[in-house]
Fold these 2 entries.
Entry 1:
Amino acid sequence: MKKILFASSALVAVAAAGTAQASEPIKLSVGGYMEQWAGVADQDVGESKNAFQSDTEVHFSGKTTLDNGIEVGAKIELEGETSSDQIDEQYLYINGGFGEVRLGKDDSAADSMGFTAPSVGPVGVNDGDLTNWVDAYLIDTVPSSGDQKRFTYYSPNISGFQLGFSYADDSGSNNNDTATDGDNILSAGINYQGEFDGIALGFSATGENQGEGNWYGLGATVGFGNFVVGTSWGHIEDDYAQGENSRTGDDTDAFDVGVSYAMDAATVSLTYGYAEYGNRDIDSSSDGVDLSGTGEVSTVDLGMSYALGAGVAWKSSIFWFDDESDNAAIADNDGYGAVTGIALTF
């Protein structure tokens, strides 16, 4: 597929709107987060990953409003620690009555618009940090392609409904400006958020195509009083994001379900996740055991978050998992663990 200048009309509209000298110049503001965790875990296969973990990003953002009311801005996310890509996301956006256009390295529309079960602890069961502590298949009901250089469009919110679409011309261009041999990535989503008589409802349908395969999924949340209940389901075709020489397997199905309860400064959550995976392709476990294969995994996470002050939260998780694989080297790996730490937002 040839590169298509989807954003040309929006850019022309901005250029033709008049000079921007009367608007305020863009000034960058600084934000971000820092998370520091300490935990202990026990598992049957491989060495337990009893360790400290951390995740830190510094965000730079700025915007200006042109004379015609159109907002133009930029966002840059700097990784606090990494062995590869120092810049996480970097994109500009154009926001107006037509919706929002983004150009640059960013998550796909499907990734941004998908709803999953509530989870407030540092581990979680769905695309969380479980594999930072144990060797297990990572459940993910919204397994999008991550940060890629792409075009994304979000429609205006109309009666609670919003549409999104993303296009990346080359999945290999994530860390290489000259890559030309990756797959086109098409991503789309629709979600709804509304409130009726004190009940908050959310629904999402998302999907993505990469290579010869697709993934697609559904998510829903219901909030009432201090409770939030949610669930999501995702299906990954065996050839999604697989190159010509990649190993083949079976499709993957996953789901999660959970509930959270907020009381003053504290919120607790209980979440369960399950996946029947068909193409687990991981090089090795913490002690060099090959983990590739098919199987099924279940995970439970009890999470807690307590606001200590503005931008300061103490979070903890107690988790359990059971991963049954057809790989004779590991067969059945199960275990449990506990993680606690401080999360800062600024």
Entry 2:
Amino acid sequence: MQPILRTLLASAACAGILSPAFAADASTGPIKNIVLVHGQFADASGWKPVYDILTQDGYNVSLVQPPETSLPDDVAATQRVLAQQNGPAILVGHSYGGAIITEAGNDAHVAGLVYIAAHMPDDGESTGFNKNKMPGLIKSIKTTADGFLYIDPAHFHADFAADLPAAQAEWMSHAQVMPAAIVNNTPITHAAWHTKPTWYMVAKQDHTISPDLERVYAARAHSHTVEVDGAHTIYISQAKAVAQMIEQAAQTAAQ
């Protein structure tokens, strides 16, 4: 077993029972509020196919636009949206959005967490620490002079969005939200997945986050896990499956 597997899986034993705040929220009835958090090199518009399915099925869906200037800023942006919910919510994160929901998920509104090809750090871990231990195949991330990251547009399709049409990936490559590099080196202080139920979708052809790291994340959190064919952008290419997992979380977390 790789050292990172031993390190990451050991923390799974720390998972405990549901917190009183979560139990109170979840007992109020069926969950109809969904909050979606995007990751790096993208924006909330990528959630549109999932949004359309969920709203058609009667869910109240809100989207967070994290500034990606710091992890605390991104958590605060998520908490602002959670504060607007009129009851318990399922909090969903893609990619770096998983780190955001791991911290923001401690909010009393949150009844469950859904991770879509996402980072899921433990207390004291950062996304950069875990990626360095189990790197993906991506080699095209560059840094600006003032410390922000972006994917070389020439490699965006292959490294980030290989399961999308080339024209769509081309457009996304020129609409990237550049994260501050510091966000990837900021550790989680209180991982919400220790006390709240989780669901995880692994992207089997992901280059941006290693699928093996995704599997480690899901296993140590004892997440309800599904693996699908697709690249890092399964939240777009596999929107139906993603929406189905979110709805399952909403139905199950309410019980």
